[in-house]
Amino acid sequence: MKEECIVQNVGVEEVVMKNLYELCSAKNLTKGSLVPTKPRGSGNTKKKGTKRGRSVDNEEAGGYKPRLSISRSKSLDMDDQPQTKKKKVNELKPVKKILPSEFPQEMFEGKDLDPSTPEDMNGIYTPDGHFPAEGDDETSPLVEGDQYQKRIPIPADGNFYLCAVCGLEVEERVCCKKCPRSYHKKCLEKSQLAASTSNDTSAEASEKKMACKRCEDDLQVYPDEDINAGVNNIPNDEKEKVQKAYKEWGEEGSFTFNSLILCELLQILSKLSEYDYGELFIAPVDTNMITDYLKTIRTPMDYGTIISKLEKGEYSPPSSEEKDGEMDAMEEIVLYALKDILQVYHNCLMYNPKGGMYHRAGEVQARKWNAYYSKHIADRISPSIAAGLTKFEKSCEIERQSVFKPRQFNAKTGFNGSSRALAVFDPDTKKIVKMYTSKATARAAVLLLHNSGYESGWDLKNSNAKSRIDSAKDPEKTLFGYQWIPIDELKGGDFKLKKKDEEEAAVKPMLSKDVVILKDDTLTKKVQGFVSEEEAFADWSMEMKGSLNINVDDNLSDFIKQYLDGDKTINGISYRRVESEKTKDEPMAENNDKGEEMGHKSKESLDV
To answer: What is the DSSP string of 180-205?
Structure first.
């Protein structure tokens, strides 16, 4: 069994035992009986018995040996043996690659253990050697395309464990399927907040899903939660406080009007802080606790910071060089304050995984803000402010699409450099897309991707994940569309690329009849022609200087001898002589001329 596992390069569950019946029969077949090896504990008892009138003496056979019943009229020949049903060998199903960004991070004590270096990730690897790649990738690893599997979101708990009615912890939650609110069943019945209950039988019995009426409250402003809007309703002390803070721009034509908008923004922020989950946004995020926050968020912002800046007059218009000519100073200040409010929601939605409770909490607050904004602000700001705010919103949406939180798993130990690192190798680009510190951590990553729903091309299990990683060194047995190769073997060239016919599938360009030298790049699949040795030599010199960054002696004779007339290559690029159509025709023309000349001579001889 062990030998067959090694030969077939599979696990115990997948091994196919060939000729099993013959192996057993050749050793134990005696006079029409299939005799298995003596079972444990059978002993050497001497026992006689009869079967259908025939004597069976187990003493002669050496103990307990049951017989295989066969027809009396027909002897059991090797050709008549029943064939064992062979187990179907696990074959690779063609699947698309997963996005390189979807490979999980290997974490230990809050740090990513990825052992790769920038040089590793920017290299081109072939069995003939590896060298630095030139330029940037054409396809971003974050962008989905036809060559990649569709990204699968990271599952997250979408509801808090505190009841939205009584505020106490909930063990058996009744969860809203749209917002992060959870309820005790009794609290929900008393408050009559349940709108509809989901019939999803896959949900856990203790956590029923429904849509709550509180979600409707997020979209509107009720009288008891409204603000004092308008010049006659805003308290005088609030107006005076804001106007004093921004008195520097008191001569602006829109000063009085826009200072009232700033007063209303202060009231709205106070109301939002008191609304559901507002306490999460009233103070800055503690980056000592959430250590990776600033890696994702470039501009932290919160309600408390905005309120403080508004009250202290810390918002100011841009310099004259950056100023928009269509807006005055107070309009610029209003725009800055509005952008900061949107920044709060943008940060929350970008950092927290979609569908998670904190992401949903940000959506609740954003919906409530939009209700206040639509009622009190949207129709009163100038078109220039509205245009600037729309532009900012679009830029936030684009940024959220390009940034996401990757999957992670925790390694048992840190990386000390002694384990054998494993590279995830793209057979198309011939570049590394991810590295893991060992085969064990690579196995954890493979199982995490499999359990997340990505297609690997194989029937993956806990028991065969390591053997599948071993097999994935073969370009015909890829895992998630990639080869998995130990980094020392990859750098040493001890691996195979895809078949030659696949590598040369690209359509080659039409060449001029004057081309005498061909440059063939096996990596980029590009072909270029040159009309002279000097032109090809100039290109070769640029390749040597640009790609390898070494000094090159301009020696045309060596280039001709080693590359054109030899078999030397550079970075997977070969230069060889080719015969153009013109060159092919010339010998034929010479032969025709000679033939005609000989014909004339023969004719002359006959005439004579």
So the answer is: S-EE-HHHHHHHT-EEEE---TTS-T
